[in-house]
Amino acid sequence: MKDRIKKRMIRTGWKMSPDTMAAMEEVHAFREEVAALRKTVASLKREIDESRRDSLRIAELTDVVVEKLAAFERASQASRDSDVPAV
């Protein structure tokens, strides 16, 4: 019932003022496009946030690896120094 009334009103609007109805349809299309773009922007923001978190985690893990390698290098150097007889 609602659909029938709505369709009748739209037909009447087109008969009475086609320019206004064309403008209304264009506005409606723009609103739908804006809504779709907003969803896309929100999705992209979430992806950017996730990428930032991933980058921070990579930086943290890189720091851990560098520290462990430096400690290993110091330990290796110390064991080499203790193995070399003094002259």
Would you spell out the secondary-structure blueprint of this structure?
Blueprint: H1 2-16, H2 18-83
Helix pairs in contact: 1-2
What can be said about this structure in brief?
The chain has 87 residues and is an all-alpha fold. Helix content is 93%, strand content 0%.
Please explain how this structure is put together:
- The chain is mainly alpha-helical.
- The chain has one domain (2-82).
- The chain contains two helices and no strands.
- It has helices spanning 2-16, 18-83.
- Helix 1 crosses helix 2.
- The longest helix has 66 residues, at 18-83.
- The chain is rod-shaped, with a radius of gyration of 34 Å.
- It starts with a helix and ends with a helix.
- The mean pLDDT is 91.
List the main descriptive attributes of the protein structure presented here.
87 residues; mainly alpha; 2 helices
Structural class: mainly alpha
Q: What is the first-to-last residue Cα distance?
A: 105 Å
Q: What is Rg?
A: 34 Å
Helix content: over 70%
Largest sheet: none
Q: Give the helices and strands as they follow along the chain.
A: HH
Share of residues in strands: under 5%
Number of strands: 0
Mean pLDDT score: 91
Low-confidence spans = none
